[in-house]
Amino acid sequence: MKLKGSKTEQDFRIQLTKLHTSLFQERLNARLLSVLQMSFPEMRTAYLIGQTPEQGEDLYTILVNTDTIAAIELDRYNLDAKPIVGRLSLQDYSKGLSKINQIKIAVALDLAQRDLENN
What we know:
Number of strands: 4
Mean pLDDT: 94
Strand order of the largest sheet: 1-2-3-4
Radius of gyration: 14 Å
Number of helices: 4
Distance between the termini: 24 Å
Largest sheet: 4 strands, antiparallel
Strand content: 25-35%
């Protein structure tokens, strides 16, 4: 999907950048970052594209580098519980996404590509 610089894209860019900074710099996300680093040792950048709080766990959908989607489930109360980690190609994940989610993925992909070019 080609980005056009729309208001929606700009809003996603701001949101994704804030979440990216939070993931890598805030202690609150240390557990999630640790799971990401252990599960994806090749990770050079990551963008949180979805978070769903459930009753006893939190579900995260994360773009890792520019080609992988991580699906991570963390138990909210039992910090010793083993996280559940899934891996999906970006291509497989993108099939059937709504237009708004396609835009969000395209913006996250653009940000990730820029990160990889600058590092």
